[in-house]
Write a structure and sequence with these properties.
about 230 residues; alpha/beta; six-stranded parallel β-sheet; 9 helices; 2 domains; three-stranded mixed β-sheet; Rossmann fold; NAD(P)-bd_dom_sf
């Protein structure tokens, strides 16, 4: 598997995935990869003249970088190579226009790459139905730190967007309330850096404490009364 691009998503995968012996990485600028290689000896830098050696490619580029890369290097790959496409801003059909003669598989990340690195937990990639063979390939490569589930590109886009929008509103509201109470910034930062993530994890695991349970029950009651 060749990783193309070395932004937050690729850095997270190479950091969290402990099952791969060698990560083959190409990035337009080598500095990031060279720096990462100092901490992770499993990273191996690849140059364009080696692209033809890889049939499976993990595309970790933003939309604009992805298009530029294909225009410059698309012809360097073997025909019918398999490209796992992760950019949420481009659909499979849009990417295929730049990769004639190759297979494009949508593989979208449902989560936050930096948070995954902090937790050392890869979280979830989503692949559409109908790609069972390709799913097995990417599951094997991603390893035990990740899960791969079935879903659509649109579902991941909506889930990520809503989660970011509502979280930003939450942070703004909490900050405003704490400012009104004249809580020092150091205490605000300590609370915000732990409590929201902790409450969410507890909610997903059904492990709320008494205070959180009381708030949830009150909110659910108010919601029922409104209807």
């Amino acid at each position: 598997m060749l990783i193309v691009g070395f932004g937050k998503l690729a850095r997270m995968v190479t950091s969290v995935n402990k099952d791969v012996e060698t990560f083959y990485v190409y990035n337009r600028t080598k500095e990031k990869v060279v720096e990462a290689k100092k901490k992770n000896r499993n990273i191996h830098i690849v140059t364009p003249d080696q692209f033809s050696s890889f049939q499976h490619i993990f595309l970790a580029l933003p939309p604009d970088g992805l298009i530029t890369f294909f225009q410059q290097y698309g012809a360097f790959f073997q025909e019918n190579s398999l490209f796992f496409h992760t950019a949420t801003g481009l659909t499979k059909e849009e990417v295929e226009t730049y990769l004639p003669g190759h297979r494009v598989i949508p593989l979208k990340y449902a989560g936050h790459a930096l948070q995954a690195m902090r937790e050392n937990n890869g979280n979830t990639f989503v692949i559409p139905p109908g790609y069972e063979k390709e799913r097995q390939i990417i599951e094997h490569w991603l390893g035990s730190a990740f899960s791969v589930v079935t879903g659509t590109e649109e579902e991941v886009l909506v889930a990520n967007q809503v989660a970011v929008e509502e979280t930003m509103k939450l942070v703004a509201q909490v900050t405003e309330r704490l400012d009104e109470r004249k809580i020092p910034k150091s205490i605000q930062e300590a609370a915000l850096s732990h409590i929201p993530a902790g409450v969410v994890h507890a909610h997903l695991a059904g492990e709320h404490g008494a205070f959180a349970k009381k708030i949830l029950e009150q909110w659910q009651k108010e919601k029922c009364d409104e209807t």
